[in-house]
Design brief:
This is CBS domain-containing protein. InterPro entries: CBS_dom_sf. It comes from Streptomyces halobius. There is one protein chain. Helix 2 runs antiparallel to helix 3. Mean pLDDT is 76; it is low at 1-15. This protein is α+β, with helices and mostly antiparallel strands. The protein is elongated, with a radius of gyration of 20 Å. It contains 5 helices and 6 strands; from the N terminus they run H-E-E-H-E-E-H-H-H-E-E. A 3-stranded antiparallel sheet has the order 1-6-5. A 3-stranded mixed sheet has the order 2-3-4.
Length: 134
């Protein structure tokens, strides 16, 4: 009779339901929604980033803007140097929660064609940004 050596099962062998909190990136630069488009573009350039997380005066996340969005607004015929970030954000969101699974987040992102939604806590404060490979 041969003895079989038992080894504990590795954690990676079991399916793991990873959450958004496990994979989110840092929020990156956060700016106030009263910032003008030109200043936001300058901040983006200095930070070498493609997006900014936008917060209101209470430090609650109101959205996310990309360089492409800001450039499109700046290049439009309706643009003035008084346009603020809050003027281009239609409504709060879309956001994702740090406690939902990656599968749920991927489904929502594909269904709504979201690029990288901000991850916010229960109070609405930005925790990070979810950027999943499509």
């Amino acid at each position: 009779m041969t003895l079989a050596q038992m080894q504990p099962r590795s954690e990676s062998a079991a399916p793991v339901h990873r959450t958004v909190a496990d994979t989110m990136d840092s929020a990156g630069p956060q700016v106030c929604d009263d910032m003008t488009i030109e200043v936001a573009l300058s901040v983006m350039d200095s930070a070498r980033t493609e997006h900014l997380v936008v917060c209101d005066n209470d430090d609650l996340c109101t959205g996310r803007v990309t360089q492409a969005q800001l450039t499109a607004v700046r290049d439009s015929s309706a643009y003035t140097d008084r346009v603020q970030l809050r003027d281009m954000l239609d409504n709060r969101g879309p956001f994702t929660s740090p406690v939902i699974t990656i599968a749920e987040a991927q489904h929502a992102m594909r269904g709504r064609r979201l690029g990288a939604p901000p991850v916010v806590d229960e109070q609405g404060s930005a925790l990070g940004v979810l950027a999943l490979a499509h």
